[in-house]
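Look over this entry.
=====
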Amino acid sequence: MDIRQVAKRAKVSTATVSRVLNDSPSVREKTSAHVRNVIAEMNYVPNTHARSLRVGRARMYGLIVSDINNPFFPELIDAFEALAAQQGIDVIFMHTNYDPKRLQSCIRRMVERSVDGIAVMTSEVDLEALQMAPERVPLVLMNQPAFKDRYRNVPVEYATGFREALEHLRELGHTDIGFISGPSTLSSAKRRREEWSLAMKRLKLPVRKGWVITGDMRMEGGERAMAELMALEERPTAVLTSNDLMAVGALQAASHAGLSVPTDVSIIGFDDLPIASMVMPPLTTIQLPRREIAAYAFASLLQATRDGMVANSDVVHPTLIVRKSTAVVPPRR
Protein backbone atom coordinates (compact mmCIF):
# COMPACT_ATOMS: atom_id res chain seq x y z
CA MET A 1 0.00 0.00 0.00
CA ASP A 2 1.30 3.46 -0.85
CA ILE A 3 0.20 7.07 -0.81
CA ARG A 4 -1.43 6.79 -4.24
CA GLN A 5 -3.94 4.23 -2.97
CA VAL A 6 -4.82 6.50 -0.05
CA ALA A 7 -5.29 9.43 -2.44
CA LYS A 8 -7.50 7.35 -4.71
CA ARG A 9 -9.74 6.21 -1.83
CA ALA A 10 -9.95 9.75 -0.43
CA LYS A 11 -10.50 11.24 -3.94
CA VAL A 12 -7.76 13.80 -3.48
CA SER A 13 -4.30 14.28 -4.97
CA THR A 14 -1.20 12.56 -3.61
CA ALA A 15 0.14 16.05 -2.83
CA THR A 16 -2.86 16.67 -0.55
CA VAL A 17 -2.28 13.38 1.29
CA SER A 18 1.40 14.30 1.70
CA ARG A 19 0.47 17.72 3.12
CA VAL A 20 -1.93 16.09 5.60
CA LEU A 21 0.76 13.65 6.73
CA ASN A 22 3.13 16.58 7.25
CA ASP A 23 0.49 18.63 9.13
CA SER A 24 0.58 21.38 6.54
CA PRO A 25 -1.71 24.35 7.41
CA SER A 26 -2.50 24.79 3.71
CA VAL A 27 -5.05 21.93 3.78
CA ARG A 28 -8.60 22.80 4.83
CA GLU A 29 -9.64 21.29 8.15
CA LYS A 30 -12.55 19.35 6.61
CA THR A 31 -10.31 17.85 3.91
CA SER A 32 -7.60 17.01 6.44
CA ALA A 33 -10.09 15.20 8.70
CA HIS A 34 -11.45 13.24 5.72
CA VAL A 35 -7.97 12.13 4.62
CA ARG A 36 -7.01 11.11 8.16
CA ASN A 37 -10.17 9.01 8.42
CA VAL A 38 -9.24 7.22 5.20
CA ILE A 39 -5.69 6.66 6.46
CA ALA A 40 -7.10 5.10 9.65
CA GLU A 41 -9.59 2.92 7.71
CA MET A 42 -6.83 1.61 5.44
CA ASN A 43 -4.41 1.09 8.37
CA TYR A 44 -1.81 2.97 6.34
CA VAL A 45 1.64 3.55 7.86
CA PRO A 46 3.61 6.25 5.98
CA ASN A 47 6.91 5.04 4.54
CA THR A 48 9.12 7.98 5.37
CA HIS A 49 12.32 6.01 5.09
CA ALA A 50 13.15 7.12 1.56
CA ARG A 51 12.26 10.70 2.36
CA SER A 52 14.53 10.55 5.41
CA LEU A 53 17.44 9.50 3.22
CA ARG A 54 16.78 12.41 0.86
CA VAL A 55 16.77 15.01 3.61
CA GLY A 56 19.72 13.45 5.40
CA ARG A 57 17.96 12.75 8.69
CA ALA A 58 20.14 11.37 11.45
CA ARG A 59 19.71 7.65 12.06
CA MET A 60 17.32 6.71 14.84
CA TYR A 61 16.66 3.49 16.74
CA GLY A 62 13.64 2.58 18.84
CA LEU A 63 13.97 0.84 22.20
CA ILE A 64 10.94 -0.76 23.85
CA VAL A 65 11.02 -2.06 27.43
CA SER A 66 8.37 -3.64 29.66
CA ASP A 67 8.23 -1.23 32.59
CA ILE A 68 10.16 2.01 33.01
CA ASN A 69 9.40 1.85 36.76
CA ASN A 70 11.21 -1.49 37.05
CA PRO A 71 14.86 -0.74 38.00
CA PHE A 72 15.97 -3.52 35.63
CA PHE A 73 15.38 -1.35 32.57
CA PRO A 74 17.00 2.09 33.20
CA GLU A 75 20.51 0.59 33.15
CA LEU A 76 19.71 -1.26 29.92
CA ILE A 77 18.35 1.97 28.37
CA ASP A 78 21.41 3.94 29.53
CA ALA A 79 23.84 1.40 28.05
CA PHE A 80 21.96 1.17 24.74
CA GLU A 81 21.73 4.96 24.40
CA ALA A 82 25.45 5.41 25.19
CA LEU A 83 26.42 2.98 22.43
CA ALA A 84 24.06 4.73 20.01
CA ALA A 85 25.52 8.14 20.85
CA GLN A 86 28.99 6.88 19.96
CA GLN A 87 27.66 6.07 16.49
CA GLY A 88 25.72 9.32 16.10
CA ILE A 89 22.38 7.51 16.37
CA ASP A 90 19.38 8.96 18.19
CA VAL A 91 17.22 6.73 20.41
CA ILE A 92 13.56 6.99 21.31
CA PHE A 93 12.13 4.62 23.90
CA MET A 94 8.69 3.52 25.03
CA HIS A 95 7.37 1.01 27.55
CA THR A 96 4.51 -1.47 27.43
CA ASN A 97 3.62 -1.94 31.11
CA TYR A 98 3.67 -5.69 30.32
CA ASP A 99 0.73 -5.28 27.90
CA PRO A 100 1.10 -7.09 24.50
CA LYS A 101 -1.54 -4.84 22.94
CA ARG A 102 0.45 -1.81 23.99
CA LEU A 103 3.50 -3.37 22.31
CA GLN A 104 1.64 -3.20 18.99
CA SER A 105 1.03 0.50 19.53
CA CYS A 106 4.68 1.12 20.47
CA ILE A 107 6.01 -0.58 17.33
CA ARG A 108 3.49 1.18 15.10
CA ARG A 109 4.33 4.61 16.52
CA MET A 110 8.05 3.98 16.09
CA VAL A 111 7.55 2.94 12.47
CA GLU A 112 5.54 6.12 11.92
CA ARG A 113 8.45 8.09 13.36
CA SER A 114 10.71 6.44 10.78
CA VAL A 115 13.12 4.60 13.06
CA ASP A 116 15.81 2.56 11.33
CA GLY A 117 15.50 -0.41 13.71
CA ILE A 118 13.79 -1.43 16.93
CA ALA A 119 15.14 -3.27 19.98
CA VAL A 120 12.19 -5.01 21.68
CA MET A 121 13.57 -5.66 25.18
CA THR A 122 10.27 -6.83 26.70
CA SER A 123 9.03 -9.89 28.55
CA GLU A 124 5.81 -9.94 26.52
CA VAL A 125 6.01 -10.51 22.75
CA ASP A 126 3.55 -11.83 20.21
CA LEU A 127 3.75 -12.29 16.46
CA GLU A 128 0.89 -9.91 15.71
CA ALA A 129 2.73 -7.08 17.43
CA LEU A 130 6.06 -7.85 15.74
CA GLN A 131 4.39 -7.87 12.33
CA MET A 132 3.56 -4.18 12.80
CA ALA A 133 7.15 -3.53 11.70
CA PRO A 134 7.73 -3.77 7.91
CA GLU A 135 10.69 -5.76 6.59
CA ARG A 136 12.68 -2.58 6.06
CA VAL A 137 12.75 -2.02 9.86
CA PRO A 138 14.84 -4.75 11.54
CA LEU A 139 13.89 -5.97 15.01
CA VAL A 140 16.01 -7.53 17.73
CA LEU A 141 14.34 -9.31 20.67
CA MET A 142 15.51 -10.17 24.19
CA ASN A 143 15.53 -13.88 24.87
CA GLN A 144 12.58 -14.94 22.72
CA PRO A 145 13.55 -18.40 21.40
CA ALA A 146 10.10 -18.96 19.89
CA PHE A 147 10.90 -16.25 17.33
CA LYS A 148 14.63 -16.90 16.81
CA ASP A 149 14.12 -18.21 13.26
CA ARG A 150 12.25 -15.08 12.20
CA TYR A 151 13.87 -12.26 14.18
CA ARG A 152 17.25 -11.34 15.61
CA ASN A 153 17.52 -12.44 19.23
CA VAL A 154 19.72 -11.93 22.29
CA PRO A 155 19.52 -15.31 24.08
CA VAL A 156 19.73 -15.62 27.85
CA GLU A 157 20.62 -18.96 29.41
CA TYR A 158 18.90 -19.13 32.81
CA ALA A 159 19.99 -22.66 33.74
CA THR A 160 23.46 -21.73 35.01
CA GLY A 161 22.17 -19.07 37.39
CA PHE A 162 19.50 -21.32 38.90
CA ARG A 163 21.94 -24.22 39.22
CA GLU A 164 24.43 -22.02 41.09
CA ALA A 165 21.70 -20.68 43.38
CA LEU A 166 20.32 -24.13 44.21
CA GLU A 167 23.78 -25.60 44.75
CA HIS A 168 24.49 -22.72 47.14
CA LEU A 169 21.31 -23.47 49.09
CA ARG A 170 21.98 -27.19 49.12
CA GLU A 171 25.46 -26.58 50.54
CA LEU A 172 23.74 -24.65 53.34
CA GLY A 173 21.55 -27.68 54.04
CA HIS A 174 18.34 -26.52 52.32
CA THR A 175 16.19 -29.07 50.53
CA ASP A 176 12.76 -27.51 51.17
CA ILE A 177 12.82 -24.74 48.59
CA GLY A 178 9.93 -22.65 47.31
CA PHE A 179 9.62 -20.38 44.30
CA ILE A 180 7.76 -17.12 43.62
CA SER A 181 7.10 -17.01 39.90
CA GLY A 182 6.02 -14.23 37.59
CA PRO A 183 2.79 -14.52 35.56
CA SER A 184 2.77 -17.30 32.95
CA THR A 185 1.57 -14.71 30.41
CA LEU A 186 5.11 -13.26 30.43
CA SER A 187 7.42 -15.45 28.39
CA SER A 188 10.53 -14.62 30.44
CA ALA A 189 8.74 -15.38 33.72
CA LYS A 190 7.45 -18.67 32.31
CA ARG A 191 10.96 -19.71 31.23
CA ARG A 192 12.46 -18.76 34.58
CA ARG A 193 9.94 -20.96 36.35
CA GLU A 194 10.65 -23.83 33.95
CA GLU A 195 14.42 -23.51 34.38
CA TRP A 196 14.10 -23.38 38.18
CA SER A 197 12.00 -26.55 38.11
CA LEU A 198 14.48 -28.33 35.80
CA ALA A 199 17.41 -27.29 37.98
CA MET A 200 15.61 -28.60 41.07
CA LYS A 201 15.05 -31.98 39.39
CA ARG A 202 18.63 -32.21 38.13
CA LEU A 203 19.87 -31.67 41.68
CA LYS A 204 17.30 -34.20 42.96
CA LEU A 205 15.51 -31.57 45.04
CA PRO A 206 11.75 -32.04 45.49
CA VAL A 207 9.42 -29.66 43.65
CA ARG A 208 6.28 -29.16 45.74
CA LYS A 209 3.37 -27.60 43.89
CA GLY A 210 2.10 -25.84 47.00
CA TRP A 211 5.42 -24.05 47.38
CA VAL A 212 5.27 -22.44 43.93
CA ILE A 213 3.30 -19.19 44.12
CA THR A 214 2.64 -16.71 41.30
CA GLY A 215 3.43 -13.04 41.83
CA ASP A 216 3.23 -10.04 39.50
CA MET A 217 6.93 -9.12 39.09
CA ARG A 218 6.45 -6.17 41.49
CA MET A 219 7.22 -5.79 45.21
CA GLU A 220 3.56 -5.98 46.20
CA GLY A 221 3.12 -9.29 44.38
CA GLY A 222 6.24 -10.71 46.00
CA GLU A 223 5.02 -9.66 49.43
CA ARG A 224 1.61 -11.31 48.91
CA ALA A 225 3.16 -14.52 47.57
CA MET A 226 5.70 -14.75 50.41
CA ALA A 227 2.96 -14.15 53.00
CA GLU A 228 1.06 -17.07 51.49
CA LEU A 229 4.12 -19.32 51.73
CA MET A 230 4.94 -18.30 55.29
CA ALA A 231 1.35 -18.95 56.40
CA LEU A 232 1.62 -22.63 55.47
CA GLU A 233 1.75 -25.15 58.30
CA GLU A 234 4.79 -26.70 56.64
CA ARG A 235 6.74 -24.00 54.85
CA PRO A 236 9.96 -23.92 52.80
CA THR A 237 13.21 -22.98 54.50
CA ALA A 238 14.40 -21.08 51.40
CA VAL A 239 12.62 -19.18 48.64
CA LEU A 240 13.82 -18.13 45.19
CA THR A 241 11.99 -15.40 43.30
CA SER A 242 11.65 -14.65 39.61
CA ASN A 243 13.05 -11.13 40.06
CA ASP A 244 14.57 -8.86 42.70
CA LEU A 245 11.50 -6.67 43.15
CA MET A 246 9.48 -9.66 44.34
CA ALA A 247 12.42 -10.72 46.52
CA VAL A 248 12.31 -7.31 48.25
CA GLY A 249 8.58 -7.83 48.79
CA ALA A 250 9.37 -11.29 50.19
CA LEU A 251 11.79 -9.72 52.68
CA GLN A 252 9.00 -7.40 53.85
CA ALA A 253 6.53 -10.28 54.19
CA ALA A 254 9.00 -12.30 56.26
CA SER A 255 9.50 -9.34 58.57
CA HIS A 256 5.74 -8.85 58.95
CA ALA A 257 5.42 -12.54 59.85
CA GLY A 258 7.98 -12.12 62.63
CA LEU A 259 10.64 -14.09 60.76
CA SER A 260 14.29 -13.17 60.50
CA VAL A 261 16.11 -13.40 57.15
CA PRO A 262 18.29 -15.42 56.83
CA THR A 263 18.06 -17.00 60.31
CA ASP A 264 14.53 -18.33 59.82
CA VAL A 265 14.25 -18.34 56.04
CA SER A 266 16.70 -17.72 53.18
CA ILE A 267 15.72 -15.65 50.13
CA ILE A 268 17.37 -15.39 46.69
CA GLY A 269 16.34 -12.90 44.00
CA PHE A 270 17.03 -12.63 40.29
CA ASP A 271 18.52 -9.72 38.25
CA ASP A 272 20.88 -8.03 40.77
CA LEU A 273 19.20 -4.63 40.67
CA PRO A 274 20.90 -1.76 42.56
CA ILE A 275 18.32 -2.17 45.35
CA ALA A 276 19.57 -5.72 45.99
CA SER A 277 22.69 -4.46 47.75
CA MET A 278 20.82 -1.69 49.62
CA VAL A 279 18.11 -3.65 51.46
CA MET A 280 18.66 -5.27 54.84
CA PRO A 281 19.91 -7.87 54.73
CA PRO A 282 21.65 -7.35 51.36
CA LEU A 283 20.07 -9.73 48.88
CA THR A 284 21.73 -12.84 47.49
CA THR A 285 20.65 -12.82 43.86
CA ILE A 286 21.27 -14.16 40.36
CA GLN A 287 22.91 -11.39 38.37
CA LEU A 288 21.60 -10.77 34.84
CA PRO A 289 24.08 -8.42 33.08
CA ARG A 290 21.89 -5.72 31.57
CA ARG A 291 24.70 -3.78 29.90
CA GLU A 292 25.80 -6.94 28.14
CA ILE A 293 22.26 -7.49 26.84
CA ALA A 294 22.12 -3.88 25.63
CA ALA A 295 25.48 -4.24 23.87
CA TYR A 296 24.44 -7.39 22.02
CA ALA A 297 21.09 -5.88 21.03
CA PHE A 298 22.72 -2.71 19.73
CA ALA A 299 25.40 -4.60 17.79
CA SER A 300 22.73 -6.74 16.14
CA LEU A 301 20.69 -3.69 15.06
CA LEU A 302 23.78 -1.84 13.88
CA GLN A 303 24.84 -4.70 11.64
CA ALA A 304 21.29 -5.14 10.33
CA THR A 305 20.95 -1.48 9.38
CA ARG A 306 24.41 -1.34 7.79
CA ASP A 307 24.36 -4.44 5.62
CA GLY A 308 21.16 -6.35 6.38
CA MET A 309 23.09 -9.23 7.93
CA VAL A 310 21.92 -11.13 11.01
CA ALA A 311 24.50 -10.86 13.78
CA ASN A 312 24.83 -14.02 15.86
CA SER A 313 24.60 -12.75 19.42
CA ASP A 314 26.56 -14.44 22.17
CA VAL A 315 24.52 -16.12 24.89
CA VAL A 316 24.13 -14.12 28.11
CA HIS A 317 24.88 -16.20 31.23
CA PRO A 318 23.55 -15.09 34.65
CA THR A 319 25.72 -15.75 37.71
CA LEU A 320 25.03 -15.99 41.45
CA ILE A 321 26.00 -13.07 43.70
CA VAL A 322 26.12 -14.20 47.36
CA ARG A 323 25.28 -11.57 49.98
CA LYS A 324 23.56 -11.83 53.37
CA SER A 325 20.03 -13.13 52.74
CA THR A 326 21.03 -16.81 52.77
CA ALA A 327 22.31 -18.91 55.66
CA VAL A 328 22.46 -22.44 57.05
CA VAL A 329 19.06 -24.12 57.21
CA PRO A 330 17.34 -23.48 60.56
CA PRO A 331 16.51 -26.47 62.78
CA ARG A 332 12.96 -27.79 62.49
CA ARG A 333 10.74 -26.85 65.39
About this structure: Confidence is low (pLDDT under 50) at residues 51-56.
